[in-house]
Structure formats: structure tokens, C-alpha cells
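Page 42, continued from yesterday. The earlier attempt failed because a stray header line got pasted into the input along with the sequence. Redoing it now with the clean sequence only.
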Amino acid sequence: MLVYVWSTHTLAPGKLRARLQEMCDRIGLRYRRILVWNSGGQVTNAAVTGLLAPVRYIMLSDGLLETMREEEIEAVFGHEAGHVKHHHLVFFLFFAILSMCLAGGAALLPVRLGWVEARDVQTQQTIILIALAVIWAFGFGWVSRHFERQADLYGARSLMPRLNESDVSCHVHGTGDDTRGDPPDRFAVAAECFARALLQIADLNGIPPEARSWRHSSIASRVEQLRRFARDRGAMARFDRRLLIIKVGLFAATAIACAAAAKIYWPW
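This time it went through. C-alpha cells are written below.
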């Protein structure tokens, strides 16, 4: 629907398209088409839509294509690809199901304890709405911010095979032309390229680097985290483990909640 609701057209053949297609082949990302999102230069961003490959479209805004270098565009695209490769949409679906089960349980518990009469539907509905508001305001924002940072990390990692073509300077080790010491660390260079792309997107979209939102941490904190990962690989490994725990926890909690809901509501 977005392909037709928004003004889009297929990205013309060329070096950038070949570069993005090669990246998709390398990471195993299946899609239908790469599109240019015509925003009149008002939007500088990218998006991947579609849970399934036959209806998955990669969208690059005209503002992004007009203002950023190819390696920076690829970095932004790698972030969007990270959402797909890490199955974030699937886990958001798990979260939605879990939130419904928890909200239903929050309404059922006072009935079971005798605090609310079973026929008082209005009070139960109010409890459900309050529970959903609290769960989504705090829980979903927390999960989403972690997923955004994981997509940042994937975007930086996806650039590593391209480093021999990039003249990006490394925030940690300097430029690749510096022969006084060891060659720059590949991840550090990739992380700095992605960090520069993030900062440029913030600048072009008029977003203060320190500003944060419900679903996104501030650009400044995301950039600092990538640079910390470049300095401390142990921190990066711990972050990977934390995201694995979050995903396993979401899956397990959703499975348990669904089983409990089935046990409670099936007799009704």
C-alpha cells in the first residue's frame, strides 16, 4: 500500500543500485524492488517495508540520495536491513500479543480476587486500557530503543567488506593512510562511517543530536555507543548477549502467556 500511497519509482540502474544489490546478496536479504521515495527533498531517510520477501520494498528518500555519499547511503540502508535480518517486526508482533495477554490478565485478576464484579465490564475495560497504555509506553519504547541500537550495529557491520573502497577516517585510529602504527581497525572505520551518516541525517532533518523519543535513543548516545564498541569489543559482545536474552525472553513470555490465556478462556 505504501508503494502506491507514497510517491515512489524504481531506483535507476547504476553504481549505487548495483552496490545495494550486491549488499543484499551478501547478507541474504530478499526483496521485491528498490524504490526512490519522492518527498520533494523534505525527507532524508530510508525504510524497508514488508514482513515477507514478495512484498518487501527498499525505499530511499530523494533527500537521502541527493545529500549523502554512497557509503553513507549504504550505511543507512544497512540499518534498515538490520531490522529485517534480526526479525524485529516478528518480535514486535510477539510484544503486541504479550501485551494483550497481560492486559487481559490485569482485568481478570481483580475479578478473581473479588475486588470487581464479573458483570462490571466497564471497569474491566478501563483496567485493560490503562494496562495497555503502561505496557506500551514503557515496555515497547524500551524494546524498540534496543532494537534500533542493534540495527545500528548491523548497519556498521554491513559496511566492513567495503572498507577497501572507502576513504572514511576512523575516529579511534585515524585514517587508513597513517603508516605510523597498525592499520585502522575494520569495525572502527565502519562504525565511524555509520556514525557520520547518523549525525548527517540528524542535521538534515533538523533533529538535535541530544534529542530522544519514545522509540529512539538520541543520535548522540547511539553514536557514542558505536564508538564504545569500537574501543571495547567486550561491550559489543555483552550487547549482543543482552539482545539475545531480550528476544528469548519475549518469545518465552509470549508462549507462556498464550498458554495461560488458552487455559483460562477456552472453557468460556
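Notes: The two ends are 38 Å apart (CA to CA).
Reminder to self: strip header lines before submitting.
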